[in-house]
Structure formats: structure tokens, C-alpha cells
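User: I'm designing a mutation panel for Protoheme IX farnesyltransferase and want to avoid disrupting the core. Could you give me a predicted structure to guide residue selection? Please restate the sequence first so the numbering is unambiguous.

Assistant: Good idea. Sequence first, for numbering, then the predicted C-alpha cells:
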Amino acid sequence: MTDVSMQDTATREAGMGDYFALLKPRVMSLVVFTALVGLVTAPGHVHPFIAFVSILCIAVGGGASGALNMWWDADIDRIMKRTSNRPIPSGRVQPEEALAIGLALSGFSVILLGLATNFLAAALLAFTIFFYAVVYSMWLKRSTPQNIVIGGLSGALPPMIGWACVTGTVSIESVLMTALIFMWTPPHFWSLAIFVKSDYGRAGVPMLTETHGRRVTRNHIMGYMVALVPVSLAICFTQIGGPVYAVTAVVLNLWFLQACYKVWRRDEEQAEADNFAAEKRAFKVSLAYLFLHFAALMIDATLQSAGLWG
């Protein structure tokens, strides 16, 4: 073997970082945080070790669905510049490896969560993995411009799973936390899609910006933002919506609503003139919006457990 071929082989050998990248760690961080808030805000108590195992299982399950998604999407990942260096299209990880890892971690996380907590929590985790890997990745993503809307359910379920780990039930509180993430996803993602040049059209993925254009996408952003506001505020009237959350929700909704309105009222000439400044701002606001909502819920839960309200 020549030195060149040996070097090429070496560059294609997968390291631990490549296998970890299969799990989509940035997405996993959101899964872990929202699941933790669901667990902390739930009425009742679990042993700290059981709580740790529960969050670990939810994180591993989220990572497993990411690996299955990368296995299925390897063909389009090779086409798009943004994803061409992922472990599978780059050749560092073989597709069958990713499939085996995804299936193994899926089974491990669901079974362990069921043994550690209850059947409902395990069933919700199994459904989340199935929905992302099969319903979204294999069907919705390549068939409808509403893919990110419907597919967003998989990313919205972690707080419901965390809640179920403690209570063994689904309640209005966990439903509203899930609905908050579900309704937040479209304005968050489409704000990004407007200003990020993508290869979705070349890859045959019918994202809304590709199929209907930016004007329609702006209309959708505003529509989903308006629908998001009552979902956010409804949590104020439940047992988990304390004073910190109430103030935070009002301020954040006004902030995000204003940012989305500025995106909606602009035309393409205005957007290109300032390099999509309003769209970039709306995307940044969306990140703060979700994080601060759930952080406020956690703060209120802490205050409530300390007997400072409720």
C-alpha cells in the first residue's frame, strides 16, 4: 500500500467523535434540557439516581433517533454542502454501523427507561424515536413542505416523557409544554431557512422556502407565532406556571412577536439590502424564547418546592 492510500484510509477511520456526531449532540442538548424541566416540574418525587437514569435514557433515545436519521438521509446528506461532512457521507462511518448503533441504542434506552420508571414513559420514548426516524425522516421530510411542522412533534415530546417518568401520567401541563415546543418550531426553523442558503431543492427535499418561496414562508412564520402566544400564556394558568414564568412569558411573547412581525412585513429587496438582519435577529430571539420559557418553569418549580409560592 502506498503512503497516499494509507493516508486516505487513515482519514476515513472513524473516531469516537464521529460516532458521537451520529447522535446529533446539539439537538440532544435541547432534548435533555426540556426533559429535565418536565421531570422537575412534575408533582411528586423520584430518587436522584432514577432521575439521572431517566434523563440519560431520554438523551440516548434522542441520540439513537439522530443516528437512524443520518443512516436514512445519507444519500441527500452527500448532496448538501451543510451535511456532506457528516460521518456517513464523508465515509468515516459505514451506513450499517449507524443503523446498528441507532437500533441498539433505541432498544437500550426504551427498555432501561421502562425498568427504571414506568411503561408510559418508555412507550412515549419509543414513539418519539419511531416518529423521528420513520414518520419524519422516511416519509414527511421528502413528501411535504409541512415536514418540519408535523415532524416537530418528535422534538416536542421530551418534557412529556420527563413528566411521565415521575407521575406515570400525561397531564395538561405536560401537553402544554409539548405544544409550546411544537408551535415554536416553525417560526424558529423558517426564520433560519429564509437567510441560510440550502441545497434542499437540489436534494429533492420540499422545504417551504424551496416549494413556495420566502413570501409564503414569512406568512407562515407570522401565523404560527400568533398561534404560539396563547399556548405559552396558557401555562400560566396551570400548577406549574408561577410568577416568574408569567412575567417571563409575557415579555418573551412581546419580544418574539415583534421580531416575527418585522420578518413578515419585509419584502425580499429590503431583506437582501441589509443581509437579512431582521430574519437573523428573529432566529436568535427564538433560541432565547424557548430556553428562557423552560428556565422560568424550572425556577418556579424550585421556588414552589422551597415554599415561596403556591
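For picking mutation sites, this is relevant: Residues 277-305 form the longest helix (29 residues). The chain has two domains: 17-170, 173-310.
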